[in-house]
Specification:
Blueprint: E1 6-9, H1 11-25, E2 29-33, H2 35-39, H3 43-53, E3 57-60, H4 63-71, E4 79-82, H5 92-97, E5 99-103, H6 106-114, E6 119-123, H7 138-150, E7 156-161, H8 169-188, E8 195-197, H9 201-206, E9 214-217, E10 241-253, E11 258-259, E12 265-266, E13 271-276, E14 293-296, E15 299-304, E16 312-315, E17 326-330, H10 340-346, H11 351-356, E18 364-366
Parallel strand pairs: 1-18, 2-3, 2-9, 3-4, 4-5, 5-6, 6-7, 7-8
Antiparallel strand pairs: 1-10, 10-13, 10-17, 11-12, 13-16, 14-15, 15-16
Helix pairs in contact: 1-3, 6-7
The chain binds pyridoxal-5'-phosphate (PLP).
Length: 367
């Protein structure tokens, strides 16, 4: 039987990673971040696994992602927080689906209140310059929040959040100090949110000061390290994503022949190539060619020539490799698989991007 071509997500690894992270950040709670299709791992299956692991908060970028989780059966006993909103979002979906919007402006706050959303979190920008009200906007935002309470509106300010830039320890601590100014500003208008949250994976693992009440953790739950100098194993985490492909065909290539578009690689000796059916249309960067290796059986073999739209080539020499054999692109290095970080390094990016970019064309299965 031919090997599986696609992404296999290890449910047990997700559950174990959740336990490791939850223990480490306690007494803070965890918001399990499953945005961007759970960083390419498949949001619904991952959310189910993390809920089984004990997650009572899920974090998504936008309401579409939250609605998809609710429609897949994640019930309202599990809170969903969404923090990026379209300019014309009216938040009625948030109320209908029991999704908590994190709002960044007076306009979003007022619109959420008009939609009778029961709880919102306020997002303040403490240095990332992405979403979140900037400090000069806080007085008006906080006054609007206070007015909602005074008017007896249904909407309650349940949380206050910001997001770290991970630029340096001192930059992150400056952001924490800015968040404290926001907490104080809210307190001055009589609002004390139940939960304050700032840190994501890096902050919550390396800067305990920034954990506050909830840590919004994505990458670490997928078993990957946010630190260039620490591996998954160093952090007690297990990479949950394994990418495999079946060998579609083997091709004999005489010494001197060029391979794939542009002949960026030529055979130095008579050799054989294995072709697999994953390419840049599936999210595997064209530039991986000549810079990464895969595992077949117990051995590593280089990916050679340019990655094409739907295929890549592997130089297998005279190894005993046949059509249908399993090729492992990346998985858990503790089991001998290549690390996703090798693929990231090869094209000058980070593990986040490599996993998140595995395309929707690639089949996912959870074991
Ligand atoms: C607002 C917010 N919080 C938390 C996270 C989770 O980050 P990480 O995957 O580094 O844990 C993200 C992801 O980028 C985010 O955008």
């Amino acid at each position: 039987m031919s090997a599986f071509t696609g992404v296999t997500v290890d449910r047990e690894a997700l559950i174990a990673n959740y336990a490791t992270v939850a223990e480490q950040v306690a007494p803070a709670g965890v918001v399990a971040v499953v945005k961007a299709d759970a960083y390419g791992h498949g949001a619904v299956e991952v959310a189910r696994a993390l809920v089984d692991a004990g997650a009572d908060w899920l974090g998504v970028a936008d309401l579409d992602e939250g609605v998809a989780l609710r429609e897949a059966g994640i019930d309202e006993g599990v809170r969903i927080l969404a923090w990026l909103h379209a300019p014309d979002e009216d938040f009625r979906r948030a109320a209908r689906y029991g999704i908590t919007p994190a709002v960044s402006s007076v306009e979003q706050l007022s619109t959420a209140a008009d939609a009778d959303v029961p709880e919102v979190h306020l997002v303040v920008d403490t240095g990332l310059s992405r979403n979140g009200a900037v400090e000069s906007e806080w007085p008006e935002l906080f006054a609007t929040a206070a007015a909602l309470t005074r008017n007896g509106d249904r909407t309650r300010i349940e949380g206050l959040m910001s997001h770290l830039s991970n630029a340096s320890r001192s930059d992150d601590l400056d952001q924490d100090a800015a968040l404290q100014r926001a907490i104080d500003g809210l307190a001055a208008v009589g609002i004390r949110p139940d939960v304050v949250h700032l840190a994501a994976s890096a902050g919550s693992l390396a800067l305990p000061e920034t954990r506050r009440d909830l840590a919004r953790v994505g990458l670490a739950l997928y078993g990957l390290s946010p630190f260039p100098d620490r591996t998954s194993a160093d952090l007690g985490l297990r990479p949950a994503m394994r990418v495999t492909a079946a060998v579609l065909r083997t091709v004999a290539v005489p010494a001197g022949d060029g391979v794939s578009y542009g002949y960026t690689w030529r055979a130095e000796r008579d050799t054989r190539l294995a072709v697999i059916g994953l390419g840049y249309a599936d999210g595997f960067d064209r530039a991986y060619g000549n810079h990464v290796s895969v595992r077949i059986g117990d051995r590593r073999f280089p990916v050679v020539g340019r990655v094409a739209m739907n295929a890549m080539h592997i130089d297998i020499g005279d190894a005993d490799v046949a059509i249908g054999d399993e090729v492992v692109l990346w998985g858990d290095p503790a089991n001998g698989d290549p690390a996703v970080e090798d693929w990231a390094d090869a094209i000058g990016t980070i593990n986040y991007e490599v996993v998140a970019r595995v395309g929707r064309s690639v089949e996912r299965r959870t074991t």
